[in-house]
Design brief:
The protein is α+β, with helices and mostly antiparallel strands. The protein is built from eleven helices and 19 strands. The strands form three sheets. Strands 3, 4, 5, 6, 7, 13, 14, 15, 16 and 17 form a ten-stranded mixed beta sheet that branches.
Length: about 400
Amino acid sequence: MATVIVGAGIIGSATAYYLSQSPSSTIPSDIHLIEYSPELFASASGYAAGFLARDWFSHSVASLGELSFDLHKDIAHQNDGARKWGYSRSTGTSLLKVKGDRRGDEWLRDGTSRAETAATHDFADGNGPAWLTKTRNGMVEVISNDKCTAQVDPLRLSRFLLSACMDRGVKLHQPARPVSITKDSSGALASVVIASTSPPNSTTTIPCSRLVITAGAWTPRVFKSLFPKLKKTIPISSLAGHSLLLRSPRWNIGDELKAGGGCHAVFTTDKSGYSPEIFSRVGGEIYIAGLNSATLPLPELPTDRVIDQESIEVLRRTAKRLLGKEDQDDLEILREGLCFRPVGERGTPIIGRVDDETLGLEPKEGSGVWIAAGHAAWGISLSLGTGKVVSEMIEGKKTSADITRLGL
């Protein structure tokens, strides 16, 4: 049975990855990935932090978090992930007092720290990473160890997943946008019509019985374009986040070896009123973000983003304060970034099947429409688990994680 996946970011690619290796009824060449953007992984899949956690989630997401973290570890060990996409153990440290009793994604909107969602761990005083500028009265506390947190480069991981899919025969249609669906004589889903957005701007009808929407922050728009007569909407909003990718002379291969090959994540506060998050990566890169905006409008395409230089300047000042030296400017800026995270109304992702009756479709065995989006800042961490359970739902199998409370 043919499957169309709209959105070839890390969630869509992970879904295709697990579906294409299924030993059951799915033939890889019958899986179609549709991507509207002319640049692959141009939003959160390529510009997010890449921080992974196992037990930093609310009860409804906990099972998925554990599954996904373990899958990240397994796939990295099986495919040389340390070299190919910078998979590494990570130690989470905090420069603020963390109570560990906040859950969900409230911290995203009110400017507080992701560290406040961490599970309770025994704190231990530590010196912190070598690249962190120490202050006289500063205190570094360990809030997680390398058994429950890790780090990847999300862009390279996304590219690996997509490449593996295509090597198996999965088809990528890009740039192309979904236009409409068609029904068969019984009223069940029969095909998805897509339009190429590059010359010759042709229209293609892809026969399919299974449709998955994994378009991130653009998921509500895709859903509306495919089902324009429905009053139902997908309760996902977008949250813009600026970032910097940089290098510091105090974080290099030698430091990685001294640290046993591990990376660090640092959560702190800034006098500007936001909570910076800083992540070191294998290869000498350091990523800094945490400056989020719910008012920046979602563009038509990820490539239409307009970076706000005032926000970038705030991040630069924070980077200099926390990572630099007072008497010299020795940080090399590699990339300025802006991505749009999909935030579910409940603060948790939406993963599940949309009722056929709601869509105006007749039920048919093996047919259906699924949504997998709204992961907020945890899209990279939850990506593999989401792809795994969505592929299992599509094939009518028992899911490897409990996602009963994540449906629409």
